[in-house]
Amino acid sequence: MGDFAKIFKAYDVRGVVPDELDEQTAEAVGAAFVEVTGAASVVVAHDMRESSVPLAEAFIRGARSRRADVVHAGLGSTDLLYYASGSLGLPGVMFTASHNPARYNGMKMCRSGAVPIGGDTGLTEIRDRAAQLVGVTATPAGSLIEKDLLPGYAHHLRTLVDLAGVRPLKVVVDAGNGMGGHTVPAVFEGLPIELVPLYFELDGDFPNHEANPLEPQNLVDLQRAVVDSGADLGLAFDGDADRCWVIDERGESVPPSAVTALVAVRELAKAPGATIIHNLITSHGVREIVREHGGVPVRTRVGHSFIKAEMARTGAVFGGEHSAHYYFRDFWFADSGMLAAMHVLAALGEQERTLSELVADYSRYHASGEVNSAVADQDEALRRVREAFAGRGEFDELDGLTVTGSGWWFNLRASNTEPLLRLNAEAADETEMTAIRDEVLAIVGKVSE
């Protein structure tokens, strides 16, 4: 039996297979999912991990045992599951552990219309009910329909971003042996794009590198391939292909804040005066650019549940995070790395400049990137930082501690899952950014000694 307390996280289910998450657990979760959501029908998809098919099949047995009909979409990315939930009007479950190593698997759940299910919106109830249902078997009564949703997903994305008229582009895509290898060819089919595929073979053992583009070492192959092939840009997807990282023609990373600002401007052109959501550690350039283009920037805590909640509350047209998650009102307020990538391709292909020249318009400040420090006494570290910066800037505690001075700011916040403090700093001047970053790290370091 699985370890329910350990595998049920704030936003999803995730654990080592089979020690923490096994088929018996997945079957119980399937039955509990139907009971808690009251679903008459459910749509299920899964990634390429070896454990994904048996776990998904077990979940389906549990769901059908509670008389729910199941639409089985088979292989898919997480944003394909959101498309399925939105277009079919069904609650959905995606089996994936995203960028985690091969021994992990998990479930991302949503209600009809891709509305996320988290700890305070049903996930806790599903956990508690599933724990009671382990080992309780019943004959499947609901129907099972297998449905290929990939063509519909690709068509839907192409209706949201028109790439048919862009100039020819050469694009290297590193799928990291994840689900991008399945979805990218379908989305790009028939478009004026010369695709250079990198690691498109579906392999949940990730033989080439981890499918996590946030780690710089996982981008090295893509950066080299972009330069060597003379490509216009590169795209890196994570394991379940809901995040996308962009590389320019020089092999340099494009900051997610610049992508957020670029996409925001494009969405504001379609919806003048609309709201744009950004989390508090995206660049200050994002909110400046949004205001300059007539939009309303709204700042949130870090985390997709906060972004999605604010998008739903405000009716925002778009939301972006520093972690390369991008959310769209036209995509049921859900995130889609593929859709963000298509916006970048459209912006590049509609004009003649290189990508580095284009994104220079959206990159105004020097950022530290996220710097993690192992700190046992996080409260003491935050107290000392507050003391050191007293009178030097404005304090804000929406999420951790944000201090904003003249031409600079930093945020220091505790990890939800590890004994880490995460620092992000930014300034108009790189020397000043470095000085602020190093001063904070020195204070934090003294506490951890």
Please give a handful of descriptors for the protein shown.
449 residues; alpha/beta; Alpha-D-Glucose-1,6-Bisphosphate, Chain A, domain 3; 4 domains; seven-stranded mixed beta sheet; six-stranded antiparallel beta sheet; 23% strand
What's the topology here?
Layout (H helix, E strand, L loop, with lengths): L3 H4 L5 E4 L6 H15 L3 E6 L5 H14 L3 E7 L2 H11 L3 E4 L8 E8 L3 E2 L2 H15 L10 E3 L3 H11 L8 E6 L5 H9 L4 E6 L21 H10 L3 E5 L6 E4 L5 E2 L1 H15 L4 E5 L4 H9 L3 E5 L3 H11 L3 E3 L5 E3 L5 E2 L1 H13 L5 H5 L6 E2 L3 E4 L3 H11 L5 E3 L4 E4 L3 E7 L5 E8 L2 H19 L1
Helix pairs in contact: 2-3, 2-5, 6-7, 9-10, 9-12, 14-15
Overall description:
There is one protein chain. The protein is of the alpha/beta class and 449 residues long. It has four domains: 4-149, Alpha-D-Glucose-1,6-Bisphosphate, subunit A, domain 3 (Alpha-D-Glucose-1,6-Bisphosphate, Chain A, domain 3, 3-Layer(aba) Sandwich); 169-251, Alpha-D-Glucose-1,6-Bisphosphate, subunit A, domain 3 (Alpha-D-Glucose-1,6-Bisphosphate, Chain A, domain 3, 3-Layer(aba) Sandwich); 256-362, Alpha-D-Glucose-1,6-Bisphosphate, subunit A, domain 3 (Alpha-D-Glucose-1,6-Bisphosphate, Chain A, domain 3); 366-448, Alpha-D-phosphohexomutase, C-terminal domain (TATA-Binding Protein, 2-Layer Sandwich). It has helices spanning 4-7, 23-37, 52-65, 78-88, 119-133, 150-160, 180-188, 220-229, 256-270, 284-292, 304-314, 337-349, 355-359, 378-388, 430-448, and strands at residues 13-16, 41-46, 69-75, 92-95, 104-111, 115-116, 144-146, 169-174, 193-198, 233-237, 244-247, 253-254, 275-279, 296-300, 318-320, 326-328, 334-335, 366-367, 371-374, 394-396, 401-404, 408-414, 420-427. α2 packs across α3 (52-65) and α14 (378-388) crosses α15 (430-448).
